[in-house]
Amino acid sequence: MSASIGQTVPRLARAASSATVPDVIRKTVASTGEKIPAVGLGSWITFNVGNDMVLRDQCASVVSAFFNAGGRMIDSSPMYGSAQEVIGYCLDKLGAHDRVFSTDKVWTSGDGAGQIAETAERWHTRNFDLLQVHNLVGINENLPLLFRMKDEGRLRYVGITTSHGRRTDDMIALMKNERLDFVQVTYNPVDRKVEEYLLPLAYDRGIAVIVNRPFRGGSLTQQLEGEPLPEFAADLKAESWAQLILKYLIAHPSVTCPIPATTNPAHAAENMRAATGVLPDDKMREQIAAVIGVLV
């Protein structure tokens, strides 16, 4: 788990202690048996706010709401602008470095070790829980680097990512041949290609799955806005389309943690509530996908 080495800043809204957070559904990381909350927090676009202190504090409010609702995993990347530095600021402000399951990426065909060191400095952390080769860039150099870090005790988990359905065949080949702990893929009730082979392979190989773009970067929930929820949503205690989509995802036996991004603290808490209560069975998952397919 991450440990802070950054300068202390005023703690205006410290995250609640772990003893007071709600009980949420947890999914198992197969390679270790560790259980983590079934919904995480992404930072693409939403945390790229530069040095605007008003927006940084808004991001801190999002992180606080996320932790207080039972969340742990926060994901970022060197390609997300200022997001890494903003996450470091948020964790410092909230005094919450011990609360986060820290997840980031290496994204370079050059000096991977140097980039990881810069990423750690931005987060104000010594070690990450999970590092991933982002979009398989520099895979032949960066994946062995991450495995060495893990073997040396400087990293807990190793993964690879892809998005928008790109390079799926290359990812599958790596899943078959490497001892990966995690993969990260695009998946939602509209983009379902990974259901055909990749998700079953992950299950068989004991590889945890992080889901990016669960709301298609927000466009999916925007398209559904104003549409009435199907009657069966009440059976799942889903109060919004976002919760229904997230329940669809985390009910899949291969999925470990979708990582929706938001700038709204209330939405961060709402997303976490999807990891409570009843999850859909296979039949209801198909109903969710069918209803959303018609509407969008």
Considering the chains and any ligands shown, give keywords for the structure:
single chain, 296 residues, alpha/beta, TIM Barrel, seven-stranded parallel beta sheet, 37% helix, globular, NADP_OxRdtase_dom, NAD(P)_OxRdtase_dom_sf, Aldo/keto reductase
Q: What features would you describe in this structure?
A:
- The radius of gyration is 18 Å and the shape is globular.
- It has a single domain, classed as Alpha-Beta Barrel (TIM Barrel), CATH 3.20.20.100.
- The longest helix is centred in the first third of the chain and has 16 residues.
- Strand 6, helix 5 and strand 7 form a beta-alpha-beta unit.
- The N terminus is likely disordered.
- The protein is an alpha/beta fold and about 300 residues long.
- The chain starts with about 25 loop residues before the first strand and ends with a helix.
- Strands 3-4-5-6-7-8-9 form a seven-stranded parallel β-sheet. Strands 1-2 form a two-stranded antiparallel sheet.
- About 35% of the residues lie in helices and about 15% in strands.
- It contains ten helices and nine strands.
- Helix 5 runs parallel beside helix 6.
